[in-house]
Amino acid sequence: QQKLSKIQRWEARADTLMKQENFRSSAELYSKILSKSKKKDQKYYLILYKRTLSYYRSEKFELAVKDVNVYLEKNKDSQKAYLLRALINQQLGEEDKLLPDVTRAIELGHVNPQLLRWRATLLFEQGDFIHAKKEFLNLKNFTDDPELEINLALVYRSLNNADSAYICLTKAIELDPKFIGSYVTMASFCLDDENYEAALSYLNQALKIDPANGTILFYKGVALVELKQIDKGCSCLRKALDAGEEDAVDYLKEYC
Fold first, then answer.
1. Long-range contacts made by residues 145-148, C-beta under 8 angstroms, separation at least 24?
2. What is the distance between the alpha carbons of residues 154 and 238, in angstroms, rounded to a whole number?
3. pTM value?
4. What is the pLDDT of residue 6?
């Protein structure tokens, strides 16, 4: 009884350390509790999960993934554990391991727009554009915002459906006329399609919102150079370089 009471005190102390964001110390104390555990029961795995969180928050990702793997062996229906493992593997750069865990987390829990967006993004990054489109369109049943429309535009672009891509970007601008990303993406599409006048129009709108944005200045410089307005283009490219946009260097060398 005395030993159990001591362990309970250790757990309470470790939980307090977690709340205080002293994750290294909480992990050490949870480890101490686990070392004293005589059986791997439900309580054992609860402490193991808490240690996983402590390792994750203290950026000890290798130790965290080992813990969560053990936890999931005995808790195969734990949504939070699959989600945590995805977050850990994301930090470890194990991109190929993310989609199965995010999908399993979605299957085990209520429909969460953030998880749906993450899965759609992972599908897109893996080149599965058909399923990514389906996911992003499904997500629009729950929410809509410029970033979602931009993501959908990128999917349509990858599927060689330029008209739908432009429609999505137009919708993105309508949803939030001050969101820079919509104009930049629209301009980049216009540049790719050699529609330099249209690109310039969107870039000028963006510069009204953020006059010192290096990416916008770079794209404007490119558009102007392609329109044979070399002096104006070079001026923008120099400003872009001053703003930290290193892609401007090659254009400056070639045209200025």
1. 145/175, 145/176, 146/172, 146/173, 146/175, 146/176, 146/179, 146/181, 146/182, 147/172, 147/181, 148/117
2. 29
3. 0.86
4. 85
